[in-house]
Amino acid sequence: MSLGTGWDRWPLLWLLPSAGGDVACLSAPERCWSEALPPLRRSRYRRSRAALRQVLAGVLRCSPVAVPLHSPPGEPPRLDGPLGWISLSHGGDALLIGYSPEPIGVDLEPTARPLDGAGVMRRFFPGPEQAQLERMEGEGLRDAVLTSWVLKEAAIKWRQRTLAAELSLWDYDHFSGRLHHHGDGAEPECRWGVLEGWRWAVVGQGSRGAVLERWP
Length: 216
Prior knowledge:
Elements: E1 12-17, H1 28-35, H2 39-60, E2 69-70, E3 78-79, E4 85-90, E5 94-100, E6 104-110, H3 117-124, H4 127-133, H5 138-159, H6 163-166, E7 170-173, E8 178-181, E9 190-195, E10 198-204, E11 212-214
Parallel strand pairs: 1-11
Antiparallel strand pairs: 1-5, 2-3, 4-5, 6-10, 7-8, 9-10
């Protein structure tokens, strides 16, 4: 098994229904792990891992069952061996899956998600970003805060860190479109967009040219 060829860009991004995965392709450990979860979380876990397997099978050119996925509940999903990096985001009734030869992070939120833009900004955003947004209000502020939020969540997944530890360290420049980490100065490539009522973000090498597509 090897990284599929014939793709003309990286990373690859797919939007698909969260209930669309065929759970027959799950591994024995995935089935076992899922049994310990509450019913609603169990269903979401099974469907999302099945979706991961079905999507990645097309890239790795193998059957969904053969995809070497290691994805215990509560941990970032990964592929065993040098087969690339994956990232997964739940957004209500949709999933966003990202795949790349390099580390990648993705996030997905409904564009209509209720959000106290001013409250979130003051609680979680660093001073320079607050200064950019302080003259905004209403729907414009909510949109800007939501865009910043999905980008920062994607950045945190790119580094495989936690929201609690990292959120306040990320600064998004709404004029230049640049992400900056106040701890170590990291400035990864990033991109965000809107597709069919979903606001999405991707962080990692090649992200500026990334395109979100429906799957299949």
